[in-house]
Amino acid sequence: MTESVIGFIGFGLIGGSIAKGLKRHDPNLTIMAYMRSTQKLEQAKQDGIIDLALTGVDEHFRSCDIIFLCTPVEYNEAYLKAVKPYLKAGAIVTDVGSTKESIHHTATALSMEDCFIGGHPMAGSEKTGYENSTDHLLENAYYMITPPDGAPSENIKRMVSIAKALNAIPMVLSCQEHDKAVAAISHLPHVVASSLVNLIQQTDSPQHTMRQIAAGGFKDITRIASASPEMWEQICMTNTDNIIFLLQAYIHSLNQTLEALTKRDSHTIYQLFSDSKTYRDSISDRNRGAMEPEYSFSVDIVDEVGSISTLSVILASKGISIKNIGINHNREHGEGALRISFYDKDSMEAAWAQLTRYKYELIP
Length: 364
Fold this sequence. Notes:
Layout: E1 5-9, H1 13-25, E2 30-34, H2 38-46, E3 52-54, E4 66-69, H3 73-83, E5 92-95, H4 101-109, E6 116-121, E7 142-146, H5 153-165, E8 169-172, H6 175-203, H7 209-213, H8 216-222, H9 229-238, H10 240-262, H11 266-281, E9 295-300, H12 307-316, E10 322-327, E11 338-342, H13 345-357, E12 361-363
Parallel strand pairs: 1-2, 1-4, 2-3, 4-5, 5-6, 7-8
Antiparallel strand pairs: 6-7, 9-11, 9-12, 10-11
Helix pairs in contact: 3-4, 6-10
């Protein structure tokens, strides 16, 4: 990575994490940032992450080798136009939005194909804001890079270098291919998860029986429904055509399943689960998506006085920190009595090994 001065417009979870990761890679970097919340910028300055807190898009950006646009999707396009007059020769502007075609159209309209490179780091968390950013959020996550037609090859190489400096996995593709892919593996699942949660809410009994026993598979497939409504409204409005196409295909597949159930067609129903299992098993669990993975497992443990504290002491003796611990009230899918989550994969694996030595029965 050859960049020495980096600017940020927007400095939340993703912007803060990119800045922290790059600063870790090269402590001599000069980083400047602008966002509306000056309090968070001052905190970042106290943390030693940014060197200059800006009050607007101004002349300071003329010194930047690369500028990251890290605001919500619809605002990135306005800031792309705002920053154009302050670009020095050879500077790159990139964004971190989860949809790409719309901002590429804006870049073309502004004749910025020679300096704009779309970007989408596929990492995140249910928690937002600079205060939740880390220097390793993007590690082993895909960093999608979407150069416009005619983009200088050197600019693409520089973006790949930046992704690697963050220990992310760079993937170069067109903005059209990107938006179609994320509509399938990210945007449609959010629509489905939110619709399913709302369906349960609308059909639950006055005693809220469904909500009370919700666990296991239901909580796993609907966890993403807890994401920001504002962010997902913007995503759906900027990748609408791809989502509509896939949602129509999904509705068609649900209607086929409904027809098979109506006809008591056991073969088709079996094939539904068999085909999905085969394909799902081919997807690596090591791939990180746009939501932070949950590092957790269940423990089959007897509910008696001191059982949880004993388990906690065993893990603490090895310096293993627990992120969260809770009781599984619904264990119809083979979950253990306790569900323990950890901050990272290494902690989870260390805890698994430690509890196995003490003969606990563990369930992934």
